[in-house]
Design goal:
Number of strands: 2
CATH topology: Rossmann fold
CATH architecture: 3-Layer(aba) Sandwich
Strand content: 5-15%
Strand order of the largest sheet: 1-2
Radius of gyration: 11 Å
Helix content: 40-55%
Shape: globular
CATH class: Alpha Beta
CATH superfamily: 5'-nuclease
Low-confidence stretches: none
Mean pLDDT: 94
Order of helices and strands: HHEHE
Structural class: mainly alpha
Largest sheet: 2 strands, parallel
């Protein structure tokens, strides 16, 4: 399993970009933490396994791979 990169300013900026992209499409992401997790997953080529309504929304505005469990 790949080792995730540490959280840095670039990841935070990517998370902000995800949030803004969702809002531009009229989608409401409830958690900024979900945006950070999605940005980390995108950067590291990982799939997010979740029980949360935010990740399908974030997948609509990015290449996020996600799966509800």
């Amino acid at each position: 399993m790949p080792r995730p990169a540490p959280l840095g300013a670039e990841v935070v900026e990517e998370a902000v970009g995800l949030y803004r992209a969702a809002r531009r499409q009229g989608l409401t992401v409830r958690s900024s933490v979900d945006c950070l997790i999605a940005a980390c997953a995108l950067r590291n080529g990982l799939t997010v396994l979740h029980r949360d309504r935010d990740y399908p929304l974030l997948a609509k505005v990015s290449g996020l791979q996600q799966r509800a469990v």
